[in-house]
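Exercise 7. Given the encoded structure of a 564-residue chain, write a plausible sequence.
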């Protein structure tokens, strides 16, 4: 019974393992399909959609793969100019990526904006495009420029011409316009300048398209010629307007023409007082597909024609039709909500910028405080080291001279050993005549020091080199230092009257005079022979010439003891 239970558990574990491996393998295959579809979106969006359709029941995949599938599929459908009736698919990607995935989040919001434009929800589309622009990590991304271009079209549609112009030039910086794109851009910018009553800049944009005879530019060429005619008519240049509108009628087929062309033709003919011809073209314009602005212009032109003919009933009829169309246009182009969208987004961005600026200022403040603390610690460390070094350099000189010369402004340090103080008091004073020279005093001090057991032990020539032990020197070097300062105190006082010397330099000079081997001096001072050679040169420059010749004239025995 127990064996059967264990066997069933093992089988269950194996089944779960195989299922997980199969799921991973399936997910890896779907990721490969999504990668290939994503690579084909730009050059072959139809093929990308066919590849995506090979994924069966994508809603059953894990959440991350479903979000990526929704994003890639929507991008491919946008490239194929599909008409969207719902945004439920792209909302999966928007909800999953949110504002945290940088490029993926920006692309999701861009696609959502395109879907909203197709649905006719301009306010939501503008919100999505604004969010996408704020999330793109690379501002020179192609889709960043497309977001600006779509925003410009929305702002132009809602009568926000200044903002539309800003977004158009922002798109121009980030997109490389070629082929039909450059005609679209030039024409749209011209339309914005025309709305701003800047006819020179508008005509400049329209002219760049109107004289391009290439096939891709043909539809934009017709619209540009029409706008040139309309602009010339508004400026009172009826001859130029007549020329441009005739170019439209002669270069393009009736199937390509639209109501606006006939409306402008009728307006030009009315200005030339050719009323019958104007009526003919107005009526032909009414046979074209419905265009609110063009139909309003046609009704206004018909009212003017009948006003010239004193037909009041017809004038009232067409004026009434024009008013009805204009009311519907005003209702459709109400831009209050678009201004609200833009202002709320700008407020949100301003708050985010303030928060980011505050974070940077706090970080900078903390960094400055840390830097100041570091500098203060370094300076305190250097000061402590320098103070300790100065104290170490002159401690022996000051405390030992104070035992012999109490009138000096020094303090005897408490760490001077009692034995050393006692030996100092018992040291016989040198009885020398007042006119004794420095060299004689030095020799007397040297003789006094050579008579000590310490000198015999450490520097006697009878001690063999094999008996010199490193530990011996290391433990007795402090004793050697104190003994030298005791026996040579008159010499040290004389030297300190002329120049300030450290303990190391004083011992160096005295050992040189005592003809101690350079290697032994180096070991007692815990330094190197090369460093002592440099110190000797500095001492020769520092000491008075007479003292330097006496103390350092002996070259000393060079060479390191064998045991060192």
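Solution.
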């Amino acid at each position: 019974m127990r064996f059967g239970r264990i066997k069933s558990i093992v089988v269950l574990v194996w089944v779960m393992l195989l299922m997980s491996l199969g799921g991973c393998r399936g997910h890896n295959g779907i990721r490969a399909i999504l990668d290939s579809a994503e690579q084909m979106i730009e050059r072959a969006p139809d093929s990308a959609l066919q590849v995506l359709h090979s994924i069966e029941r994508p809603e059953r995949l894990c959440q991350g793969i479903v979000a990526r599938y929704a994003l890639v599929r929507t991008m491919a459908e946008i490239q194929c100019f599909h008409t969207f009736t719902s945004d439920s698919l792209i909302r999966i990607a928007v909800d999953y990526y949110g504002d945290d995935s940088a490029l993926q989040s920006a692309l999701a919001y861009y696609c959502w904006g395109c879907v909203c434009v197709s649905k006719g929800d301009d306010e939501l589309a503008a919100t999505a495009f604004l969010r996408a622009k704020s999330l793109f990590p690379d501002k020179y991304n192609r889709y960043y420029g497309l977001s600006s271009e779509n925003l410009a079209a929305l702002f132009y549609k809602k009568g926000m011409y200044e903002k539309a112009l800003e977004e158009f030039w922002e798109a121009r910086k980030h997109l490389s316009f070629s082929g039909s794109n450059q005609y679209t851009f030039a024409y749209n910018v011209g339309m914005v300048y025309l709305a701003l009553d800047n006819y020179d800049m508008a005509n400049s944009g329209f002219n760049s398209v109107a004289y391009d005879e290439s096939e891709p530019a043909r539809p934009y060429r017709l619209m540009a010629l029409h706008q040139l005619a309309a602009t010339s008519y508004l400026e009172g240049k009826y001859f130029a307007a007549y020329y441009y509108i005739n170019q439209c009628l002669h270069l393009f087929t009736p199937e390509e023409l639209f109501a606006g062309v006939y409306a402008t033709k009728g307006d030009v003919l009315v200005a030339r007082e050719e009323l019958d011809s104007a009526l003919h073209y107005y009526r032909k314009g009414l046979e074209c597909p419905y265009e609110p602005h063009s139909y309003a212009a046609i009704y206004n032109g018909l009212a003017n024609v009948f006003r010239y003919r004193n037909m009041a009933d017809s004038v009232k009829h067409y004026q009434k039709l024009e008013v009805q169309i204009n009311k519907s246009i005003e209702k459709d182009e109400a831009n209050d909500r678009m201004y609200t969208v833009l202002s709320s987004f700008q407020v949100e961005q301003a708050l985010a910028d303030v928060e980011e600026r505050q974070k940077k200022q706090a970080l900078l403040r903390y960094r400055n405080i840390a830097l100041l603390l570091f500098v203060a610690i370094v300076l305190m460390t250097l000061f402590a080291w320098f103070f300790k070094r100065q104290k170490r350099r002159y401690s022996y000189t000051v405390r030992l001279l104070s035992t012999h010369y109490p009138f000096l402004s020094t303090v005897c340090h408490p760490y001077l050993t009692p034995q050393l103080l006692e030996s100092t008091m018992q040291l016989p004073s040198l009885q020398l005549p007042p006119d004794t020279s420095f060299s004689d005093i030095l020799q007397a001090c040297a003789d006094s020091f050579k008579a000590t057991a310490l000198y015999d032990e450490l520097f006697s020539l009878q001690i063999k080199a094999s008996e010199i032990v490193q530990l011996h020197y290391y433990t007795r070097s402090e004793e050697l230092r104190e003994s030298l300062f005791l026996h040579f105190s008159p010499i040290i006082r004389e030297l300190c009257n002329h120049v300030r010397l450290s303990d190391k330099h004083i011992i160096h000079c005295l050992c040189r005079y005592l003809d101690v081997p350079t290697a032994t001096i180096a070991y007692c001072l815990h330094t190197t022979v090369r460093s002592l050679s440099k110190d000797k040169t500095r001492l020769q420059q520092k000491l008075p010439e007479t003292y330097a010749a006496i103390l350092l004239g002996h070259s000393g025995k060079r060479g390191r003891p064998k045991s060192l």
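Remark. The chain is about 75% helix and 0% strand. Students should compare their own answers with the one above.
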